[in-house]
Amino acid sequence: MADAPKTPAENAQEVFDLVKAYAIQETATPLAGLGRYLKFGLPGAISLGIGFFFLALAALRGLQEIEVFNGGADGRGWGVIAPYAIVFTVAVAIVAFLASRITKGLSS
Questions:
Q1: Distances (CA, A) of 9 to 2, 14, 16, 18, 76
Q2: What is the Rg, in whole angstroms, of the alpha carbon atoms belonging to the chain?
Q3: What DSSP assignment string belongs to 17-62?
Q4: Which value, to the nearest 10 degrees, does the dihedral of the CA atoms of residues 66, 69, 75, 77 take?
Q5: Pair 34, 28: CB distance under 8 Å
Q6: Do the beta carbons of residue 88 and residue 77 sit within 8 Å?
Q7: Residues 58, 91: contact at Cβ < 8 Å?
Q8: What is the DSSP letter of 4?
Q9: Taking phi first (over 0 means left), then psi (-120 to 50 degrees means alpha), and beta for anything else, what does residue 83 get?
Q10: Crossing angle for the helix pair 8-64 and 82-107, nearest 10 degrees?
């Protein structure tokens, strides 16, 4: 025999249960796998960031040792600012390149 027709309250409860199960399936399950990415990705990103910082700092100190950039005997002039501008420009270019590669990887 066929089941008796459901009341509107029973239909509403069934829809609510289906939506709740779907929401758990589509959010909780993928979030469980996110932990693995964060466990390795976050320390890796921090390590690369610190390494990039020290590499830029070494480049700055190296450029400051070049006679052209040390500002002469009195230590003044535009040559003193040039190493900072060079390192900043190169750092921004590297970050922009890496950001473009990240977004390119997401779209394909």
A1: 19, 9, 10, 14, 82
A2: 29
A3: HHHHHHHHHHHHHHHHHHHHHHHHHHHHHHHHHHHHHHHHHHHHHH
A4: 170
A5: no
A6: no
A7: no
A8: P
A9: alpha
A10: 150
- What string of pLDDT tens digits covers the 108 residues of the chain? 457 788 888 889 999 999 998 988 888 877 877 877 888 888 999 999 999 999 999 999 999 888 887 766 666 667 788 899 999 999 999 999 988 988 775 665
How far, in Å, CA of 13 to CA of 48, rounded? 51
pLDDT tens digit sequence for 8-31: 888 899 999 999 989 888 888 778
d(CA 7, CA 14): 11
Residue 41's pLDDT is 86
Domain ranges for the chain: 8-107
Q: What are the Cα distances from residue 40, in Å, to 28, 45, 69, 95?
A: 20, 9, 41, 21
pTM of the predicted model over 0.70: no
Token pair, residue 108, equals 């394909």
